[in-house]
Amino acid sequence: MSVETNPAANVGNARWKRLIPVAIIVYIISFMDRTNIGFALNGLHQDLHIDAAQQGLAAGIFFIGYLVLQIPGGHLAEHWSAKKFVGIMVLVWGVLAVLSGFIQNFGQLLIVRFFLGVAEAGIWPAILVLISHWFPAAERARAYAFWMMNIAIASIITAPLSGWILSFSDWRWLFIIEGLFPFVIAAPLWWALIADHPRDAKWCSPEERAYIEAGLAADAAEHAQQEHLNIRHVMANAAVWRLTLVYFLIQIGFYGINIWLPHVIKTMTSGSSLAVGFITAIPYVLAMVALWYNAKAADRTGRYSTHVLLSMAVGAVALVLSVATGDSAPFLAVALISVAVAGALAYDGPFWAAASRAMPAVVAGSAMGLINAVGNLGGFVGPYVGGFLQDATHGSFMATSIFLACCLLAAGLVMLTLRRGGDRPIGKAGTGTRTAASEADAVHSTEATRRNR
């Protein structure tokens, strides 16, 4: 059989069409409720009288709360139920998102944003664990990238929607209206359509189930000697901490861009709230394309660390150039900042695929929780330092862009140190150590065993 043959194409793809889209929708709403504050900053400045540094603090304190349930969330998803954990937390974060519209002062804003971070904390690692239960390692970068398009899609939706809401109301109604989405969309879909494992899903065909289980069994065999590991081994794993540093630096860059992007676009174009909303969505359309093709290329080559570096380098250079040309050529600046956002997001699939290879599967949930927890502190640093630098430079975004670009580039360089453990070994034909033919043989063997029972 040719190595290009893909046995998965012959056994159905319900998990791609059903599981991933629902997970995308849930995280879109989660991401919307954490980042719509970027559109509320002008109103918060006027009503609560807070400066740029305080605005950055209000946006960033979410990520301090985000520390709390990351490791527990990943652990519970691996050893209890990702479906139940995420389903419960969707309802909790919905309550807090709506409460954001009723705050009366800066202190209350900080408290609600902190606990919103707590409520959303474990959802990311829990869904990563869920995906790892449904997709063998050879497909995982594409699966992660497909799901992680949620960030780009959320921004595409959030930007014009938030601009539209602000065109007829204020920041309070922005928080309240978007805070209702977890109750009317996310929770019903999640509880009705998600299953923790292929064996729990009636919609998964026997052939597809056999394919998934054969692939996961082969992956587990690579780490069979490490089944005794626990959270202590995660904390002592140097690769985990390097991945955490990479993720921390990336989140400084990405959230520094994301939170301040509406403000930067408004400065470049002097457009209305609705116009700024639509223009702000443009970079994330390009980011979706970059996410998919970078992940597809990374799965083909197995060089996950290199593909992370390339996306970071593109994002860093384009960001600084976009700000440098903002005053003289606003259309070029918008095009460049679109490339910057695409670069700052295109790392996702290769990064998490490398992370899933660099650690034993038995502790993957806890390790991904740790990476996401500590790494997302960058989401506090980026917006806050960005606001501080703008105050210090009389409103200029240039110093902020240089700082964010340096963080992105440093992340890519550190990622190269993970090539040995995170990249997938390449065979003679340019495929991973498990060729398509061997995967097909595993499927056939599993099916024969099932029939003979």
What does this structure look like?
- The protein has 453 residues and is mostly helical.
- It has a single domain (13-201, 226-422), classed as Up-down Bundle (Growth Hormone, Chain: A), CATH 1.20.1250.20.
- Helices cover 78% and strands 0% of the residues.
- It has 22 helices and no strands.
- It has helices spanning 14-35, 37-48, 52-60, 62-65, 70-99, 106-120, 123-132, 137-168, 171-179, 181-193, 206-222, 231-235, 238-269, 273-301, 304-324, 330-345, 348-358, 364-375, 378-392, 398-415, 419-422, 436-452.
- Helix 13 (238-269) runs antiparallel to helix 20 (398-415), helix 15 packs antiparallel against helix 17 and helix 15 (304-324) runs antiparallel to helix 20 (398-415).
- The longest helix has 32 residues, at 137-168.
- Mean pLDDT is 81; it is low at 1-5 and 427-453.
CATH homology group: MFS general substrate transporter like domains
Query: How many discrete domains?
Result: 1
Cα-based radius of gyration, to the nearest Å: 22 Å
List low-pLDDT spans.
Answer: 1-5, 427-453
CATH class: Mainly Alpha
- The N- and C-terminal alpha carbons lie at a distance of 28 Å
CATH architecture: Up-down Bundle
Work out the helix count: 22
Q: What structural class is derived from the secondary structure elements?
A: mainly alpha
CATH topology: Growth Hormone, Chain: A
Mean pLDDT: 81
